[in-house]
């Protein structure tokens, strides 16, 4: 079986390509709801309409109206984030992700991989993931 990760040189820069040999899969569902509770984290989410497709280093996802909340506190993470979205569509190619939609995510999170802060869907992510968002539209890049 070939390795699932590669380091490629693109114009002299190293780019990490995870899941290079990931097989294709897809799913779609109507309404959904889930909740999670552990010693370190509490989260819940619900929505109507969710479709996703994956193949190799590519992903595509579309969501209808949805909302969720996450509260986490541990030695590696502290976070409080509320998410509400009217609709969105996103695409990923390797380390680059672009998302269009209308969302009012609000909160802050700090963990060993970086920091994220948003107010009404507008904010930044700095660390392993570097990104900027404006009212739910987002572009981000995973550095490693």
Polypeptide structure, described:
The protein has strands at 5-10, 13-18, 25-37, 41-55, 58-63, 66-73, 77-93, 96-103, 106-111, 114-119, 122-127, 129-134, 137-142. The protein is an all-beta fold. The chain has one domain. The strands form two sheets. Strands 3, 4, 5, 6, 7, 8, 9, 10, 11, 12 and 13 form an eleven-stranded antiparallel β-sheet that branches. Strands 1-2 form a two-stranded antiparallel sheet. A hairpin with a 2-residue loop joins strand 12 (129-134) and strand 13. The two termini are 23 Å apart. Residues 1-15 have low confidence and may be disordered.
- Give the termini distance in whole angstroms: 23 Å
Largest sheet entry: 11 strands, antiparallel
Mean pLDDT: 89
Shape: globular
Number of helices: 0
Derived structural class: mainly beta
Taken together, the total number of domains comes to 1
Features:
144 residues; mainly beta; eleven-stranded antiparallel β-sheet; two-stranded antiparallel sheet; globular; disordered N terminus
Task: Record the SSE blueprint.
Blueprint: E1 5-10, E2 13-18, E3 25-37, E4 41-55, E5 58-63, E6 66-73, E7 77-93, E8 96-103, E9 106-111, E10 114-119, E11 122-127, E12 129-134, E13 137-142
Antiparallel strand pairs: 1-2, 3-4, 4-5, 4-6, 5-7, 6-7, 7-8, 7-9, 8-13, 9-10, 10-11, 11-12, 12-13
């Amino acid at each position: 079986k070939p390795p699932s990760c590669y380091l490629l040189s693109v114009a002299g820069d190293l780019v990490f390509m995870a899941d290079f040999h990931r097989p294709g899969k897809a799913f779609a569902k109507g309404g959904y709801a889930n909740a999670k509770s552990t010693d370190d984290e509490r989260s819940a989410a619900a929505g109507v309409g969710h479709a996703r497709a994956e193949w190799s280093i590519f992903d595509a996802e579309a969501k209808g109206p949805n909302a969720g909340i996450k509260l986490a506190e541990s030695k590696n993470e502290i976070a409080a984030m509320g998410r509400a979205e009217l609709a969105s569509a996103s695409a990923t190619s390797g380390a680059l992700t672009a998302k269009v939609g209308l969302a009012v995510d609000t909160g802050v999170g700090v963990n060993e991989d970086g920091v994220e802060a948003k107010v009404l869907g507008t904010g930044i992510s700095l660390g392993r993931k570097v990104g900027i968002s404006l009212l739910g539209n987002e572009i981000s890049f995973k550095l490693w």
